[in-house]
Design goal:
Length: 131
C-alpha cells in the first residue's frame, strides 16, 4: 500500500459550492452539514462550529433570526482541493424587517469529497454604499 497516496475521491467543487449556496438560501442546516466531513469546521468572524451537528445548529440559529436569503456568487477560484468564493449575501431580519447586505469572501478546503473547512470573511460596510 502506498502511504503517500492521496484520496481517490475528486470533489466536484463547483457543484458542492452551489449545493452550499442553496442550503444557505433555504436555511437548510441538514443539507449544509451533509456537505462537510464529520469533523468539518464552519468559521465566521467571532464563531466556530465543528462537526455536522454543530454546523446544522448554526444554520438553524440563523433561520430563527433571518429570512428571505439571497446569494449571488460573484466568483469562484479553485486550486487543487481548495476554493475561494466571493458572494453577495442578503437577508431580512425577522424582528425588524431590516434588509442586511454583506459581501463575503470564503476560503474552503475539501477532503474526501467533502468540505473540511469553510472560513468566511465579511464586509458589511462597503455593500451599503453600492446599493
Amino acid at each position: 500500500m502506498n502511504v503517500l497516496a492521496q484520496s481517490s475521491i475528486k470533489p466536484d467543487i463547483p457543484a458542492i459550492i452551489q449545493q452550499a449556496k442553496e442550503a444557505w438560501v433555504n436555511l437548510d442546516g441538514n443539507a449544509l452539514a451533509k456537505l462537510f466531513t464529520p469533523d468539518g469546521e464552519l468559521i465566521v468572524p467571532g464563531h466556530r462550529w465543528q462537526g455536522q451537528a454543530e454546523i446544522s445548529e448554526a444554520v438553524s440559529s440563523v433561520a430563527q433570526q433571518s429570512q428571505d436569503i439571497k446569494i449571488d456568487i460573484e466568483r469562484i477560484m479553485i486550486c487543487g482541493e481548495q476554493a475561494v468564493i466571493e458572494w453577495h449575501y442578503q437577508e431580512t431580519e425577522k424582528t425588524t424587517h431590516h434588509r442586511k447586505t454583506t459581501d463575503d469572501a470564503i476560503v474552503v478546503d475539501f477532503r474526501d469529497g467533502h468540505i473540511s473547512r469553510w472560513r468566511e470573511y465579511f464586509d458589511t460596510e462597503t455593500p451599503l454604499s453600492n446599493q
